[in-house]
Amino acid sequence: MSFEMSFMMIKIAVVLAGLLAVVPIMLFVERRGSALLQNRLGPNRMGPFGMFQAACDVLKFIFKEDSPPGHVNKFYYSLAPWLAVIPAFMTFAVIPFAGSMSWNGSEAIFQVANLDVGILYCFSVASLGVYGIIMAGWASNNKYSLLGSLRSSAQMISYELTLGLSIVGIIMVFQSVKLGDITAAQGETLVSIAGLDIPKWGIFIQPVGFIIFLISVFAETNRLPFDLPEGESELIAGYHLEYGSMRFALFMMAEFINMAVASGLITSLFFGGWQLLPGFGWLAGQFAGTEHAQLILVFFQGVSFVIKVAFWMWFFVWVRWTLPRFRFDQLMKLGWKVLFPIALINVFVTGLLIYKGVL
Amino acid sequence: MNLGFFAFCVFSTIAIFGALSVVLKKNPVSSAFALVMVFFAFAGLYALIGAHLIAALQILVYTGAIMVLFVFVIMLLNQDTPVNDLKESSGLFKGVAALALAGLAMILIHTVLRAQDIVAVGQLTEEKITAQGGNLRVVSEALFSDHVFHFELTSFLLLGAIVSTVALAKRKTALGGES
Questions:
Q1: With 0-12 CB in 10 A as exposed, 13-18 as middle and 19+ as buried, what is A336?
Q2: For chain B, is the Cβ count within 10 Å smaller at the N or the C terminus?
């Protein structure tokens, strides 16, 4: 096996392992985080700070009896959870998690696939995830599930538009759809104020785009305040009402991994991706000139990326336990009558600013 | 056997199997899901011939948006009872269908037999596209500079379609106001 091939395999393994590790960590963070925000304790008995509770949950999911109810469409019922979880894993492939380094004369990039179409791949694969939800709701043969999946299909289509439009500004400024290029370009300095360098991060040049992207991403991942496909107070549990044991766990995995991908996208597009956090540049500079200086720099870039992603994952939990759920008509009004026009105006203004040479 | 050929076999099998399911499944939702499968396989085939942008757009537009709407509408109408049973349809319908099938089969056979003649590589070879900065740049430059007039005309056509749909779908109430 050639060097490129084995390096590729290692990258795929690292990304898969990282995404799988997200699930138990987020189980823990979501439970204890919600308890923290609601001024209660949360599960704290298993292990230090209740950390092993997630492991217990996983064991429970595995050993629970998996019996589909009699009234479901068996084929689509068993297919649906996989359709939800596989696209979620696939989407992460184009997100770069560290810069590049030269190794044995060839350049190694820390990104599973540096595709020509870049972010378009992300959106197209992510749009496949909705079929898992639609299929689950329909195959369950249950009115609440069906309502959940109808809501989800309407919601996903509406917010995919604003999601796509919100990053057009970023693509126009950085003149590329490749996430690697966009992240690398964010390392430049935008302005220097009193000796303090403000980096050219997406948030500083596209604040409106960022807000629209953030709101749309919440709708796309079906998280509160936009978790209407689940809506437990109205639809019991919506599309996964009839699911139990490992099949339900797959839907939960899909949700957490979608959160991870969304956080990775927010980080890469608006927060400099793997660009070093303040202080890390100094820390990495301490190793300059040593044998493994390049490797250490890449390590710190990876750590910066993980810290930024972790913050946005926490942000998802934070918002979930802070805001109440929207009503469905409010959700549609927000998407079509507020966010969509703002996103269009944002594209227009960005074009004007680029034409005038400001950006 | 190289990997590309293997992938081609897999995707084309999925496409043919899916296309047959679209026609043969009795449940409309199953047919719609099969059509999704066909579009996905097409995207794979486009990616295999190096048209990555078309592949991504195929999934983004057809699979991710249009088919979701199809499924949405079918579910909303909730067509439970399977219709169009072959045994109940009239002899005339069967005759016309057989004639159409024969015609299509002849076109297909003709195309396959002439396959050697009609493969003519256009101006844009794979090397040229790479030299000009990839699929996306080439397509967008062609679309927004050379063919911008046609592009704008198409957008007007679509706008007209949307406006007329709204005008048709909007019901007038008895008092003359709009609901």
A1: middle
A2: N
- Collapsing DSSP to helix, strand or coil, A187 comes out as coil
Q: Which of A71, A127, A176, A181 to mutate to test the interface with B (most CBs of B within 10 A)?
A: A127
* Contact residues, chain A, for B42 at CB < 8 Å: none
* CB A274 within 8 Å of CB A96: yes
Task: Provide the pLDDT for residue B179.
Answer: 45
Per DSSP, the three-state class of A191 is: strand
Element (H, E) at B47: helix B28-48
Q: Tell me how many residue pairs between chain A and chain B have CB atoms under 8 A apart.
A: 71
- Note down the domain range covering A60: 3-356
3-state percent breakdown (helix, strand, coil) of chain B, nearest 5 = 80, 0, 20
Q: pLDDT tens digit string along B114-163?
A: 776 666 666 666 777 777 777 777 788 888 888 889 989 999 999 999 99
**Considering only CB atoms, which chain A residues are within 8 Å of B76?**
150
- Report chain A residues whose CB lies below 8 A from the CB of B60: 120, 123-124, 127
Q: What is the pLDDT of residues A41-63, one digit of tens each?
A: 888 887 788 788 888 888 888 88
The ipTM estimated for the assembled molecules is 0.77
More confident residue, A346 or A141: A346
Residues A262, A266: Cα–Cα separation, whole Å: 6
Task: Give the closest of A120, A128, A153 to B71, CB-based.
Answer: A153
**In DSSP terms, which residues pair with A196 in a beta bridge?**
A193
- CA dist B11 and B44 (Å) reads 6
- Decide if A124 and B64 are in contact by the 8 Å CB cutoff: yes
Q: What is the pLDDT of residue B81?
A: 57
Domain count, chain A: 1
User: Cis before residue A48, ω within 30 degrees of 0?
Assistant: no
Domain at B1-80, CATH from 1.10.10.920, 1.20.1630.10, 1.10.10.60, 1.20.120.1200: 1.20.120.1200
Q: Is B76 on the interface with A (CB under 8 A)?
A: yes
Q: Is B145 helix (H, G, I), strand (E, B) or coil?
A: helix
* CA gap B179, B170 in Å, rounded: 7
